[in-house]
Each structure stands twice: as C-alpha cells, then as structure tokens.
Amino acid sequence: MKVLANGLIERDVSLRPFNTFGVDVSAALFARVRSVEDLQRVLADRRVAGAPLLTLGGGSNVLFTQDFDGCVLKVEIPGVQHNDDGARWLVQVGAGENWHAIVEGLMDRNMPGLENLALIPGSVGAAPIQNIGAYGVELAERFERLQAWDFGTRSVQTLTADQCRFGYRDSIFKRASESRLILSVTLALPRQWTPVTGYTDIASELRSLNITQPQPRDVFNAVVAVRRRKLPDPAAVGNAGSFFKNPVISRQQRSTLIERHPSMVSYDIGGGRYKLAAGWLIDACGLKGTVRGRAAVYDRQALVLVNLGGATGEEILALAREVQDAVRAKFGIELEPEPRVI
User: Fold this and answer.
1) Which CATH architecture has domain 2-75?
2) Does domain 80-190 have CATH number 3.30.465.10?
3) 34 is a catalytic site residue
4) One digit per residue, pLDDT tens: the chain, 342 residues?
5) Which of 7, 144, 263, 306 has its Cβ near the most Cβ atoms within 10 Å?
6) How far is the C-alpha of 165 from the C-alpha of 148, rounded, in Å?
7) Domain residue limits, the chain
8) Of these residues, 60, 171, 184, 242, which one is catalytic?
9) Is residue 180 flagged as an active site residue?
10) Does residue 338 have an active-site annotation?
C-alpha cells in the first residue's frame, strides 16, 4: 500500500476489511472521503480522471468477485444534527455514520421511530440505496431528503423521497449506482410514536417478556434479540445479511402455490400482491446448512449465505446460483440477490 501525492489516495489496498463478507480482493486506488472537499480533491487528481469509481460505505451489501481496477471512494462523512418542526424530529446524519449506532443513539435521545431497523449492518449513506427495511418498517417511511454529489454536474444535489424512487429494497441509486455519492441523509421521526409489532417474531419476543404495551426501547430490544438469534455477526462469520429479496407475487400465483405447498409463508402487502418468505423457500428445498467448499447457507437462517473462511466471491456467487436454480425448479420463483455483485 502506498499513499499518493495528495495525501488522500492510496494504491493497491486490500478491501477485505471493508466488506462484511470478508472477501480478499484489492482496489487499484482507494480514498477515504470525509467531506465534499475531500471528494473534490480526489476527483481532481489526474490518476483518478477516467478511472472507474466505486462508492463504498460499510461494505455490508456488496459481494466482490475480483479486484477493482479503479478508485474506491470509502465514504466516512460524520455528523448528526437534529431539529424539531413540531410534528417530527428532522435528523440530518452524515453518510459515513454507522446505521445501528445512529438508531440506538436516537433512542437514547428519546427520538424513536427506527427501532424496527436496529442492528442492520452498514452505514447511513447506504440505507437509501437499498431502502433498508425490517419487521414492518422501511427507510422510505422515515425519510425526508438526502444530499448527494452528482458526478455529472459536479455539484451537490438535494433529493426528496419521490426523486429517490423508493421501492422494495430498491431506489434510483441502484439503477445509476455511480452517478451520485450520498453525502447525508435527513430522517423524519414522528413525535407521536406508534409501535410496529405485527411481525410474528417481534410479537412472540414481546409476549415471552410479558410486555403488552411496548415502549420504544422494548421494541428495539426485541428486534436486536431476534436478529442476534437468527443472523450471524459479520465480525465472526463473513456475510451480508439477507442475500435474497423476498419475492413478490400475485394473488393467483400464491393460490396456485398454496395448493401445492400449504405451509408456505406469505404476507399480504395489498393490491393483490403477496410477499413470500425467501428463507422458507430455500429451506423447503433442503438447502439450509448446505456447505460448498468455503461457502455455506447459514444453518439458522437459509436466507443468509456465509463465508466460512477464505471463500472467494466466485465461490459465494456459485452457491447463490445453486440456491436460485433449486428454488426456480421447485416453485417457479426467481430469487433476486440483495447485495451488489462487483
């Protein structure tokens, strides 16, 4: 590793510490971005001009299959500011802040609303890209606006929720992944808090604690407890959380599948559409706990693929394709990966 002249750019940097799968690949150029000024300095460097760019936050939603022959922009922009508009708390957070730390910190300040999204790995700047969601809440429901650097106009833009085009684990940033770099996200948290506890796992956890009128901290603790039981800690076992999206199908498709698979898990999401539990589909194919060399389907949650130690991105991707093939053959359902494959 060598630091180049402007003091921000490094050369030939291992990305293993910067992706939660722990895949050992390298970047030709690597720069830590802690401000707009840092970004402008990096982009002005002649070594970066014309090189492919890759924006990286916490590395929790990416699978590297080879070295990156360009410049990785590691977003580490800090900061938290909050205001009260009477009905909501508006909280502007730097894109480099840790998501779970922000969720817990706002809870400590009596600003709830994100508790269902606790313990999701990654940075704040990555949250809108994926429109992260869990246990009945999506980021889009708690989103006000964001600031982003537009590489085309070389200027800072402000985007509203409509402009972000949020969908299920989707946003405009996925379709134009390197055209903008998110600098900060402004969250909108309702002052009149209402618990969201409709998901079975959370309701069961609260019942086990004899909590009938949960407070924000109760929901937060329940979500953390459930996630820790079901999902591996990336610090111990390389993974990117849920590897596949829960597929959405029509009422007619669901009826046909239920006739053949009465125990299939599904959720009515309105508009004649149903969300299927991808983990159930994979488990029903007998793949939970499957090991292929140094990659595996997690034995506690079939939705998670893990690096048992030293797996390459290609090994993990090959296992993902095996899972997709099995689910397609048994159910006629296409599973779409959540992580971005590089």
Assistant:
1) 2-Layer Sandwich (3.30)
2) yes
3) no
4) 455 545 799 999 999 999 999 999 999 999 999 999 999 999 999 999 889 999 999 898 899 999 999 999 999 999 999 998 888 999 999 999 999 999 999 999 999 999 999 999 899 999 999 899 999 999 999 999 999 999 989 999 999 999 999 988 889 988 765 689 999 999 999 999 999 998 889 999 999 999 999 999 999 999 999 999 888 888 889 999 899 999 999 999 999 999 999 999 988 888 999 999 999 999 999 999 999 999 999 999 999 999 999 999 999 999 999 999 999 999 999 999 999 999
5) 306
6) 15
7) 2-75, 80-190, 238-341
8) 242
9) no
10) yes
